[in-house]
Amino acid sequence: MTRDNHSILDCTIRDGGLVNNWDFSVQFVKDMYYGLSEAGVEYMEIGYKNSAKLLKGADAGPWRFLNEDFLKEVITNKTDTKLSALVDIGRVDEKDILPRDQSLLDLIRVATYIKDVDKALDLVQKFNGYGYETSINIMALSHVMENDLNEAFEEINKSPVDVVYIVDSYGSMDYKDIDYLVSKFQRLLPDKKLGVHMHNNMQLAFSNTIMGASKGVQFLDTSVYGMGRAAGNCPTELIVSHLKHPKYDVRPVLGIIEKHMIAMREKWEWGYIIPYMIAGVLNDHPRAAMALRSSDDKDKFVEFYDKLTSPEVMPTNHHSD
Ligand SMILES: C[C@H](O)CC(=O)C(=O)O
Is pTM beyond 0.80 here? Predict the structure, then answer.
Protein backbone atom coordinates (compact mmCIF):
# COMPACT_ATOMS: atom_id res chain seq x y z
CA MET A 1 0.00 0.00 0.00
CA THR A 2 1.42 3.44 -0.82
CA ARG A 3 1.11 5.94 2.00
CA ASP A 4 2.28 9.05 0.19
CA ASN A 5 -0.85 11.04 0.76
CA HIS A 6 -0.95 10.84 4.57
CA SER A 7 0.17 13.44 7.07
CA ILE A 8 0.76 12.41 10.65
CA LEU A 9 -0.18 15.11 13.16
CA ASP A 10 1.31 14.44 16.56
CA CYS A 11 -0.70 16.09 19.33
CA THR A 12 1.20 14.87 22.41
CA ILE A 13 1.82 18.37 23.76
CA ARG A 14 -1.75 19.55 23.26
CA ASP A 15 -3.81 16.47 24.16
CA GLY A 16 -1.17 15.12 26.58
CA GLY A 17 -1.33 18.47 28.36
CA LEU A 18 -4.83 17.53 29.43
CA VAL A 19 -3.17 14.78 31.49
CA ASN A 20 -0.55 16.86 33.34
CA ASN A 21 -1.94 20.41 33.07
CA TRP A 22 0.71 21.13 30.41
CA ASP A 23 3.56 20.60 32.84
CA PHE A 24 6.07 19.98 30.04
CA SER A 25 9.63 21.28 30.19
CA VAL A 26 11.03 23.31 27.31
CA GLN A 27 13.63 20.58 26.81
CA PHE A 28 10.93 17.94 26.45
CA VAL A 29 9.06 20.00 23.84
CA LYS A 30 12.29 20.67 21.94
CA ASP A 31 13.20 16.97 22.02
CA MET A 32 9.67 16.15 20.88
CA TYR A 33 9.85 18.57 17.93
CA TYR A 34 13.30 17.56 16.71
CA GLY A 35 12.60 13.86 17.36
CA LEU A 36 9.34 13.99 15.39
CA SER A 37 11.16 15.90 12.63
CA GLU A 38 13.78 13.15 12.37
CA ALA A 39 11.00 10.58 12.37
CA GLY A 40 9.44 12.30 9.33
CA VAL A 41 6.23 13.35 11.10
CA GLU A 42 4.62 16.15 9.10
CA TYR A 43 2.87 18.18 11.84
CA MET A 44 3.29 18.70 15.56
CA GLU A 45 0.57 20.35 17.60
CA ILE A 46 2.51 22.42 20.10
CA GLY A 47 -0.42 23.43 22.28
CA TYR A 48 -3.52 25.56 22.52
CA LYS A 49 -3.68 29.10 21.24
CA ASN A 50 -6.44 30.01 23.68
CA SER A 51 -6.35 33.21 25.69
CA ALA A 52 -5.62 33.13 29.44
CA LYS A 53 -7.84 36.23 29.78
CA LEU A 54 -10.83 34.32 28.44
CA LEU A 55 -10.17 31.29 30.65
CA LYS A 56 -10.67 33.06 33.93
CA GLY A 57 -8.54 31.65 36.70
CA ALA A 58 -6.91 29.04 34.52
CA ASP A 59 -3.27 28.55 35.25
CA ALA A 60 -1.18 26.25 33.14
CA GLY A 61 2.15 26.42 31.40
CA PRO A 62 2.88 28.22 28.14
CA TRP A 63 1.68 25.34 25.99
CA ARG A 64 -1.93 26.12 26.87
CA PHE A 65 -1.68 29.79 25.91
CA LEU A 66 0.93 29.82 23.17
CA ASN A 67 2.80 33.04 22.69
CA GLU A 68 4.79 33.69 19.52
CA ASP A 69 7.83 35.25 21.25
CA PHE A 70 8.09 32.27 23.56
CA LEU A 71 7.64 29.85 20.66
CA LYS A 72 10.55 31.45 18.84
CA GLU A 73 12.77 30.78 21.87
CA VAL A 74 11.75 27.11 21.86
CA ILE A 75 11.80 26.31 18.15
CA THR A 76 15.00 28.02 17.10
CA ASN A 77 15.47 25.97 13.95
CA LYS A 78 12.22 25.20 12.18
CA THR A 79 12.38 21.96 10.17
CA ASP A 80 10.02 20.51 7.57
CA THR A 81 7.71 19.51 10.42
CA LYS A 82 4.92 22.06 10.49
CA LEU A 83 3.46 23.41 13.73
CA SER A 84 -0.19 23.53 14.61
CA ALA A 85 -2.22 24.94 17.49
CA LEU A 86 -5.75 24.19 18.61
CA VAL A 87 -8.30 26.84 19.56
CA ASP A 88 -11.64 26.56 21.30
CA ILE A 89 -14.64 28.66 20.43
CA GLY A 90 -15.11 31.43 23.00
CA ARG A 91 -11.62 30.89 24.41
CA VAL A 92 -9.50 32.33 21.61
CA ASP A 93 -8.86 36.04 21.28
CA GLU A 94 -8.53 36.69 17.57
CA LYS A 95 -6.26 39.65 18.35
CA ASP A 96 -3.66 37.14 19.62
CA ILE A 97 -3.32 35.58 16.17
CA LEU A 98 -0.55 37.05 14.01
CA PRO A 99 -0.55 36.79 10.23
CA ARG A 100 1.05 33.49 9.25
CA ASP A 101 4.17 35.11 7.76
CA GLN A 102 4.98 36.48 11.25
CA SER A 103 4.20 33.23 13.05
CA LEU A 104 5.89 29.87 13.57
CA LEU A 105 2.49 28.22 13.29
CA ASP A 106 1.31 26.78 9.99
CA LEU A 107 -2.04 25.24 10.85
CA ILE A 108 -4.77 26.43 13.21
CA ARG A 109 -7.32 23.82 14.19
CA VAL A 110 -10.70 24.86 15.53
CA ALA A 111 -12.36 22.45 17.96
CA THR A 112 -16.13 22.55 17.85
CA TYR A 113 -19.23 20.73 18.88
CA ILE A 114 -21.80 20.33 16.14
CA LYS A 115 -24.03 23.10 17.47
CA ASP A 116 -21.21 25.65 17.08
CA VAL A 117 -20.01 24.77 13.60
CA ASP A 118 -21.09 28.20 12.30
CA LYS A 119 -18.93 29.93 14.95
CA ALA A 120 -16.03 27.60 14.13
CA LEU A 121 -16.34 28.47 10.45
CA ASP A 122 -16.26 32.22 11.25
CA LEU A 123 -12.92 31.63 12.99
CA VAL A 124 -11.69 29.50 10.09
CA GLN A 125 -12.56 32.33 7.68
CA LYS A 126 -10.39 34.74 9.70
CA PHE A 127 -7.45 32.37 10.12
CA ASN A 128 -7.60 31.48 6.44
CA GLY A 129 -7.48 35.21 5.68
CA TYR A 130 -4.30 35.44 7.79
CA GLY A 131 -2.74 32.77 5.55
CA TYR A 132 -2.97 29.70 7.79
CA GLU A 133 -3.95 26.19 6.87
CA THR A 134 -7.11 25.44 8.85
CA SER A 135 -9.09 22.53 10.15
CA ILE A 136 -12.42 22.14 11.86
CA ASN A 137 -12.48 19.28 14.39
CA ILE A 138 -16.01 18.12 15.04
CA MET A 139 -15.89 16.67 18.53
CA ALA A 140 -18.08 14.03 20.13
CA LEU A 141 -19.28 12.75 16.78
CA SER A 142 -20.64 9.64 18.47
CA HIS A 143 -23.38 11.87 19.91
CA VAL A 144 -24.26 13.70 16.68
CA MET A 145 -27.56 13.27 14.83
CA GLU A 146 -27.33 12.65 11.08
CA ASN A 147 -29.50 15.60 10.14
CA ASP A 148 -27.34 17.99 12.21
CA LEU A 149 -24.27 16.65 10.45
CA ASN A 150 -25.87 17.04 7.03
CA GLU A 151 -26.75 20.66 7.78
CA ALA A 152 -23.23 21.34 9.02
CA PHE A 153 -21.77 19.90 5.81
CA GLU A 154 -23.69 22.46 3.75
CA GLU A 155 -21.94 25.26 5.65
CA ILE A 156 -18.55 23.53 5.64
CA ASN A 157 -18.67 23.12 1.86
CA LYS A 158 -19.01 26.91 1.49
CA SER A 159 -16.03 27.55 3.78
CA PRO A 160 -12.32 27.74 2.87
CA VAL A 161 -11.49 25.19 5.61
CA ASP A 162 -8.82 22.75 4.39
CA VAL A 163 -9.36 19.74 6.67
CA VAL A 164 -12.45 18.36 8.39
CA TYR A 165 -11.85 16.02 11.31
CA ILE A 166 -13.81 13.04 12.54
CA VAL A 167 -13.20 13.16 16.30
CA ASP A 168 -14.01 10.21 18.54
CA SER A 169 -13.84 12.24 21.76
CA TYR A 170 -15.30 9.45 23.88
CA GLY A 171 -13.28 6.60 22.39
CA SER A 172 -16.50 4.75 21.69
CA MET A 173 -16.25 4.06 17.96
CA ASP A 174 -15.08 0.96 16.14
CA TYR A 175 -13.94 0.20 12.61
CA LYS A 176 -17.53 -0.02 11.30
CA ASP A 177 -18.28 3.48 12.59
CA ILE A 178 -15.12 4.81 10.97
CA ASP A 179 -15.93 3.04 7.73
CA TYR A 180 -19.40 4.58 7.73
CA LEU A 181 -18.37 8.10 8.76
CA VAL A 182 -15.40 8.36 6.41
CA SER A 183 -17.56 7.26 3.47
CA LYS A 184 -20.20 9.80 4.44
CA PHE A 185 -17.70 12.64 4.87
CA GLN A 186 -16.01 11.75 1.57
CA ARG A 187 -19.34 11.72 -0.26
CA LEU A 188 -20.70 14.94 1.21
CA LEU A 189 -17.45 16.93 1.49
CA PRO A 190 -15.82 16.03 -1.83
CA ASP A 191 -13.42 19.00 -1.90
CA LYS A 192 -12.13 18.74 1.67
CA LYS A 193 -9.29 16.76 3.11
CA LEU A 194 -10.29 14.60 6.06
CA GLY A 195 -8.66 13.83 9.39
CA VAL A 196 -9.21 11.34 12.20
CA HIS A 197 -8.58 11.94 15.90
CA MET A 198 -9.23 8.82 17.95
CA HIS A 199 -9.19 8.04 21.68
CA ASN A 200 -8.11 4.69 23.06
CA ASN A 201 -10.79 3.85 25.64
CA MET A 202 -11.57 0.53 23.97
CA GLN A 203 -8.04 -0.16 22.69
CA LEU A 204 -9.27 0.81 19.21
CA ALA A 205 -7.51 4.12 18.51
CA PHE A 206 -4.86 2.44 16.33
CA SER A 207 -7.36 0.20 14.55
CA ASN A 208 -9.71 3.13 13.88
CA THR A 209 -6.89 5.34 12.65
CA ILE A 210 -5.58 2.77 10.18
CA MET A 211 -9.16 2.10 9.07
CA GLY A 212 -9.38 5.82 8.22
CA ALA A 213 -5.97 5.73 6.53
CA SER A 214 -6.92 2.72 4.42
CA LYS A 215 -9.98 4.62 3.19
CA GLY A 216 -7.83 7.59 2.15
CA VAL A 217 -8.10 9.91 5.16
CA GLN A 218 -5.13 12.26 4.83
CA PHE A 219 -4.62 13.62 8.39
CA LEU A 220 -3.88 11.03 11.07
CA ASP A 221 -3.70 12.32 14.65
CA THR A 222 -1.35 10.50 16.99
CA SER A 223 0.53 11.05 20.24
CA VAL A 224 3.83 9.63 21.38
CA TYR A 225 3.35 6.65 23.74
CA GLY A 226 -0.37 7.39 23.30
CA MET A 227 -0.20 10.29 25.78
CA GLY A 228 -3.51 12.14 25.72
CA ARG A 229 -6.58 12.87 27.76
CA ALA A 230 -7.77 9.85 29.79
CA ALA A 231 -7.24 6.73 27.65
CA GLY A 232 -5.00 8.69 25.32
CA ASN A 233 -4.70 8.59 21.56
CA CYS A 234 -3.36 6.47 18.73
CA PRO A 235 0.37 6.00 19.44
CA THR A 236 2.67 7.84 17.00
CA GLU A 237 5.19 4.99 17.11
CA LEU A 238 2.57 2.56 15.81
CA ILE A 239 1.46 4.75 12.90
CA VAL A 240 5.02 5.68 11.91
CA SER A 241 5.83 1.94 11.86
CA HIS A 242 2.60 0.83 10.22
CA LEU A 243 2.71 3.25 7.30
CA LYS A 244 5.99 1.64 6.12
CA HIS A 245 6.98 4.67 4.08
CA PRO A 246 10.69 5.41 3.65
CA LYS A 247 10.15 8.97 4.88
CA TYR A 248 9.22 7.66 8.35
CA ASP A 249 11.64 6.33 10.97
CA VAL A 250 10.38 5.04 14.32
CA ARG A 251 13.81 5.14 15.99
CA PRO A 252 13.68 8.85 17.05
CA VAL A 253 10.20 8.31 18.49
CA LEU A 254 11.51 5.42 20.58
CA GLY A 255 14.27 7.80 21.71
CA ILE A 256 11.71 10.34 22.99
CA ILE A 257 9.88 7.62 24.91
CA GLU A 258 13.06 6.22 26.43
CA LYS A 259 14.47 9.62 27.40
CA HIS A 260 11.32 11.18 28.82
CA MET A 261 8.13 9.25 28.75
CA ILE A 262 8.75 6.18 30.87
CA ALA A 263 9.34 8.49 33.83
CA MET A 264 6.36 10.65 32.84
CA ARG A 265 4.07 7.63 32.80
CA GLU A 266 5.16 6.82 36.39
CA LYS A 267 4.17 10.33 37.43
CA TRP A 268 1.02 10.89 35.38
CA GLU A 269 -1.62 8.42 34.35
CA TRP A 270 -3.07 7.90 30.89
CA GLY A 271 -3.92 4.98 28.66
CA TYR A 272 -6.17 1.94 28.74
CA ILE A 273 -7.55 1.84 32.29
CA ILE A 274 -10.88 0.27 33.24
CA PRO A 275 -12.88 3.42 34.17
CA TYR A 276 -11.92 4.93 30.79
CA MET A 277 -12.90 1.68 29.10
CA ILE A 278 -16.30 1.87 30.87
CA ALA A 279 -16.80 5.47 29.70
CA GLY A 280 -15.91 4.44 26.13
CA VAL A 281 -18.23 1.44 26.11
CA LEU A 282 -21.05 3.66 27.45
CA ASN A 283 -20.24 6.43 24.93
CA ASP A 284 -19.70 8.96 27.73
CA HIS A 285 -17.29 11.84 28.24
CA PRO A 286 -14.36 10.57 30.36
CA ARG A 287 -14.67 13.36 32.95
CA ALA A 288 -16.40 11.15 35.55
CA ALA A 289 -13.74 8.47 35.04
CA MET A 290 -10.97 11.08 35.36
CA ALA A 291 -12.51 12.32 38.62
CA LEU A 292 -12.69 8.72 39.87
CA ARG A 293 -9.01 8.13 39.08
CA SER A 294 -8.11 11.19 41.19
CA SER A 295 -10.11 9.92 44.17
CA ASP A 296 -9.58 7.27 46.85
CA ASP A 297 -12.10 5.09 44.99
CA LYS A 298 -9.97 4.93 41.84
CA ASP A 299 -10.20 1.12 41.55
CA LYS A 300 -13.87 0.71 42.48
CA PHE A 301 -14.80 -0.30 38.96
CA VAL A 302 -18.09 -2.06 39.69
CA GLU A 303 -19.48 0.80 41.77
CA PHE A 304 -18.44 3.23 39.04
CA TYR A 305 -20.08 1.09 36.37
CA ASP A 306 -23.30 0.89 38.41
CA LYS A 307 -23.30 4.66 38.90
CA LEU A 308 -22.82 5.38 35.22
CA THR A 309 -25.53 2.95 34.18
CA SER A 310 -28.09 4.38 36.61
CA PRO A 311 -30.49 6.82 34.96
CA GLU A 312 -28.56 9.93 36.08
CA VAL A 313 -27.95 12.63 33.52
CA MET A 314 -24.28 13.51 33.08
CA PRO A 315 -23.49 17.20 32.50
CA THR A 316 -22.31 18.21 29.05
CA ASN A 317 -18.99 19.88 28.38
CA HIS A 318 -18.64 22.54 25.72
CA HIS A 319 -14.91 22.68 25.10
CA SER A 320 -12.18 20.34 23.92
CA ASP A 321 -11.08 19.31 27.44
C1 LIG B 1 -10.09 18.93 18.59
C2 LIG B 1 -9.56 17.75 19.25
O3 LIG B 1 -9.51 16.79 18.30
C4 LIG B 1 -10.38 17.53 20.47
C5 LIG B 1 -10.15 16.30 21.21
O6 LIG B 1 -9.04 15.96 21.53
C7 LIG B 1 -11.29 15.47 21.54
O8 LIG B 1 -11.08 14.31 21.83
O9 LIG B 1 -12.44 15.93 21.51
Answer: yes
Please tell me the distance between residue 206's alpha carbon and the centre of ligand 1 in angstroms: 16
- Between CA 159 and CA 321 the distance in angstroms is 26
Reported as a pLDDT band with limits 50, 70 and 90, residue 100 is very high
Taking a C-beta distance cutoff of 8 angstroms, is the pair 248, 215 a contact? no
* Amino acid in the structure at residue 136: I
Q: Into which CATH architecture does domain 7-267 fall? A: Alpha-Beta Barrel (3.20)
User: CA angle, 8 as apex, 3 and 13 as ends, to 5°?
Assistant: 165
DSSP 114: G
Q: What does the domain layout of the chain look like in residue ranges?
A: 7-267, 274-309
Q: Which candidate, 8, 7, 17, places its Cα nearest to that of 227?
A: 17
CB under 6 Å to ligand 1: residues? 15, 86, 111, 137, 139, 167, 169, 197, 199, 320
